[in-house]
Design a protein that fits this description.
This protein has 255 residues and is mainly α. The chain has 8 helices and no strands.
Length: 255
């Protein structure tokens, strides 16, 4: 039987017992992903900035201007927008794939097919959402930290990041314990009896493992400087740098 809503175990997470429709769950999935990505990315920006300030002061050098934190805030908004759209699409895409897979295939083959399809589809949705959001933030709002779409660096950065995000979204399907009968369900499956804390842990770990696997494959297969992890992204703000503006000396998503 094809599921049209969230797994019962996931509804325990954050006390989602009142969530009764797939539309509600899809919206909450998108909002939860967007909030987590926004604050996680901005926290990372603050940590990198703080480390740079401490190092520069120790060396007696000019410290990075606090304006860098504004750039981190802008980039966090960009990534969170893509995460919102992609998260809202996860449940409808999953439902469609489950219906298409049917019950004729063996459970392991059905699981592998759905995970592979989710990886490609959700990765594509994230890429379109992320690159399209550059039109809003870079072109329409003229935010300094956001590179314009269709530039080579932006295309490489967004596409390789989207591939890893697709892996995370794909393996998240393993949380649907009653349906996704597979060895991964032993580690990530969420069932009605699963506690809220364990559901949160397993859901998060499925994202982490899915992301890490696709990223490791990229690192092994792609030449140097062709993945977002080692591509130094030089945003528009760095082109405007003057002696009065010293930017972060590290590779970060915003400079």
């Amino acid at each position: 039987m094809v599921s049209t809503g969230p797994p019962e175990g996931l509804k325990q997470l954050l006390d989602l017992s009142h969530v009764t429709t797939p539309q509600e769950f899809a919206l909450l999935t998108g909002l939860g992903g967007a909030v987590g990505v926004f604050f996680g990315q901005f926290a990372y920006s603050c940590l990198v900035y703080g480390a740079a300030v401490v190092r520069k002061r120790r060396e007696g050098a000019r410290v990075p201007t606090p304006r860098v934190l504004l750039f981190g805030l802008e980039y966090s908004a960009l990534i969170a927008t893509a995460a919102l759209i992609t998260g809202c699409c996860w449940q409808p895409v999953t439902n469609g794939l489950m219906a298409a897979a049917g019950e004729s295939l063996p459970p392991n083959a059905r699981f592998a097919l759905i995970v592979a399809s989710l990886t490609l589809i959700q990765g594509a949705i994230f890429f379109v959402s992320l690159h399209g959001s550059r039109l809003l933030y870079s072109v329409a709002l003229q935010l300094e930290a956001i590179d314009a779409p269709f530039e080579r660096s932006a295309l490489v950065y967004d596409s390789t990041l989207s591939l890893s995000l697709g892996g995370a979204a794909g393996l998240f399907f393993a949380t649907d314990g009653p349906y996704a009968a597979n060895v991964f369900t032993r580690f990530f499956g969420v069932f009605p009896r699963t506690s809220a804390d364990m559901a949160a842990f397993r859901g998060g770990m499925s994202y982490v493992v899915g992301f890490a696997v696709l990223q490791l494959l990229q690192n092994a297969a792609f030449p140097a400087n062709t993945s977002w992890t080692d591509l130094r992204k030089k945003g528009k703000q760095q082109l405007k740098a003057t002696e009065s503006q010293v930017f972060l000396p590290y590779r970060t998503p915003f400079g």
